[in-house]
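Example record

The entry below shows one chain as it appears in the dataset: sequence first, then structure tokens.
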Amino acid sequence: MSGDVLSTAGSGLLPSAEAAPLFQARELVKHFRSRRSVVQAVNGVSLTIPRGRTVGLVGESGSGKSTVARLALRLLEPTSGELSFDGVDLLRASRAQLRALRRRMQIVFQDPFGSLNPRMRVLDAVGEPLVVHRLATGKERVDRVVDLLERVGLGAGDLYKFSHQFSGGQAQRIGIARALATEPDLIVCDEAVSALDVSVQAQVLNLLKRLQSELGLSYLFIAHDLNVVRYMSDEVCVMYLGEIVEQGDGDALFADPRHPYTTMLVSAIADSPAEGSGRHRRRAVPRGEPASPSNPPSGCRFHPRCPHAMPRCQQEVPVMQRVSADRTVACHLFDARQEVSPR
């Protein structure tokens, strides 16, 4: 499977596609074993995050997106595969190296209230990473926290409040401020806006874009909502039942999806919530239900739901191959010599 994620030219703080990538995962596998079965949560995922850019990871619930997020940050140990950050092998890094690297890799979780300690005031919740990593104490810590709060649209008047005193959008801003505290290079956004109302989603998405422009951040942006991913991402990886089935430039992928699963998802979406169209947003769900990751189908994992399934799809696992300058796809409808449209 190819680890390349195609890039478009950047501007401002965004680097060119030729710059060395910040993060890479190659053939990442994570299986959870129980007495009765083996759950194949992630099965051979490869992706690259360039510096200062956003890579979106999209798929239905249960596709393995959040597991990839935790593997990327070494919150879970992979069954096999490779992980590197800024040229350092994360799986072979010493405890001291990993601690230093974790300052540069942070996460924003789906549930803004669940990720905040209800007994902590904002000063302590946002300032905790500064203490843990010995970056600031005393008045300097207070000043740093105020600066972080102002950067995300809050202020000094919020320092001594508790999380329950905030709306969902405000609480997520606190979570973003906490992620920024260690001055990271990479932030993993794991369904970071899915628990918010649509209008609040737009505000938080625009905040994340502004922070990226100002600070040169890289994002791994995980969501099941293609509207959100379309608005945020430079590159997109489409994930199905633990595997990436299509990846490439975000605009091109949404304009011309190639894999049948991607085609079904894209056909079900309306305008981005951040564009303020006011049109009804439909959930992107193809026909049928995905199989269990503890008992995935043979061959192509999507074939039981695919309108273009052929006999070979039940037997042969498709390999990721480049089908155009901006796209790689794992589908038997394409071969290495000639592009064949799945539609």
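Notes for this example: DSSP finds nine helices and twelve strands in the chain. The mean pLDDT is 86.
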